Predict the structure.
Amino acid sequence: MNNNPLLEGSRLPAFRRIQPEHVLPAVETLIAENRAGIAALLARGETPRWASIAEPLEEQEDRLDRAWSPVSHLHSVADNEALREAYSDCLPRLADHESEIGQNADLFRAYQAIAAGAEFRSLTGAQRKVVENALMDFRLSGVALDEAGRERYRKIQQSLSLLQTRFEENVLDATQGWTRHVTDASLLAGLPESARSLAAETARGRGLDGWLFTLEFPSYFPVLQYADSAELRREMYEAYVTRASERGPADWNNAEVMVQILALRRELAELLGFSTYAHLALEKRMARSPDEVLGFLRDLARRSRPVAETELAELRQFCRERFRIERLDAWDIPYYSEKLRQALYDFSEEELRPYFPAPAAVAGLFEVVHRLYGIRVVERSGVEVWHPDVRFFDVTDDTGQPRGSFYLDLYARQHKRGGAWMDDCVVRRRTRAGIQLPVAYLVCNFTPPVGGESALLTHDEVMTLFHEFGHGLHHMLTLVDHSPVSGINGVPWDAVELPSQFMENWCWDRSAIDLFSRHHQTGERLPDGLFDKLLRARNFQSGLQMVRQLEFALFDFRLHLEDRGTAAGDVQALLDEVRREVGVIEVPEWNRFQNSFSHIFAGGYAAGYYSYKWAEVLSADAFSKFEENGIFHRDTGRQFLHAILEQGGARDPMELFVEFRGRKPSIDALLRHSGIAGAEIAA
Ligand code: ZN
């Protein structure tokens, strides 16, 4: 096809011109070129060397990645039927191409020869890591299997890529397939102005009067937190936690999809000689064994469950005394928790919104990273984007050198997947023409601007912004020259949340908040009184939050570790068991949270949800060095930049952590920050 924007190799994707019909031809062309390229490399018959094998392979993989990245990105942020179809057409082809490379025995031998050759010792550390990772990937792609085994491996990978995408699409369809139209204003009692105007604007946008609530988080959650009507809360809670389940349209039900995904993962692991999928997943992680992961999670559960139980008892007592309520259902918990928070701290999340207009939060974030790492962030206009809300920025370092760029897409909208994430558009690497600079996508789903005013963010949303930007910095500030280990590439999954969770800490510091709080009308900084309340309320119900995360993590890990049969009921049974072990809040038996748990069924967190807590030990402990030296301590900031952010996946994360901290990580900072340690002593 002529004029296919995906084949132009331009530095940035031509988002305005990319059409669904470009996708398949581009992918097929590039796969065919890569296949021919590999055959030609191997046909040369020379002694394999870095420059004759690894370098050209990186080059061709980069071409394919750069063409595919905008497609998969658009599938997430600007979904439509035709794109979905084109995307799904490509998935099995891409999975197959990857398997084909991973199972190419000649290529495997070439990498073995590089690793064993005289040249190896003179390669850089990053190059050696690329070769070692490649050897591991060959093994994990089944290069050693017989023909039937390799064939089965390829089929499994193809099916998995389709099923995981189907899971995500079902969640999106189920989220968008439900709305609640309200015409009776009395139902809105208790809701803050921000939630009302968003619902009114959503209704207007669809030609309705009154208010329209959706299951997108900025619309859904305020109802749970503030709506006085228990009926409305229950209705929305039920719709939310039964998305993609048997209680909705059969087409969107993920029950069978989950079972098939789990069965295929199990088969894949066994095919490669691992006893379970969890064992396979740990091959490329910091954690060394399932026992280490389970021990870590259960230790945290043992410490935090008593705290959570006390918090729940406190909530129950408050409800009895203040509201004469004995029974608390799942859809009552956020509502009465918010009431308790207000009673204890005289403080509501909503009071902060006026101080966090999105533009000020974004500008403040840039100032924080300028002070920490010396980098500057400048907006660039005229770049092609996929939606008018999207902005584009360039990052330069303290010597004025360009380091990378990113797209920023902040607001929730239709046809956009929920949640927040960073993804790579272009990866840093050294090419013959010089350094190819990294480009990131930063995507959030914040409360959109209403009525032409700036969007006003909650403190939680500001933290999410800092979190995703932390991932972005890891991707953009890397100085590694080889794409398989530059940025977040090659970083073990359970270490990848270190830079992101680390950045959240600046949302709790007065001098940092002064840089990004600005009242949207008066321009005033966040007043001391309000800041003190925010701090005091910081660990409100932190035990309950902790056990909730542990419940997700244990469920995910045990699901991939234990052979629990093959029916949707077995998945439910395990979840119930985990809830009995670590949970404290009772959920209705029709709750189908697992049917929309995209992290583990569609994303990269399978047998890896524990990574959030695992990496939080690292991020909290890394931050404690700033607590000791000063929150904007220049040298400590530069040390973090050099030891962690610039190193990508080229070195072992434990080694890097020790280089920065001067010792191995300790769990103390995490316990202290989440209020668990102090509570334990007091109890
Ligand atoms: Zn993250």
The two ends are 70 Å apart (CA to CA). Residues 197 and 595 are 31 Å apart (CA to CA).
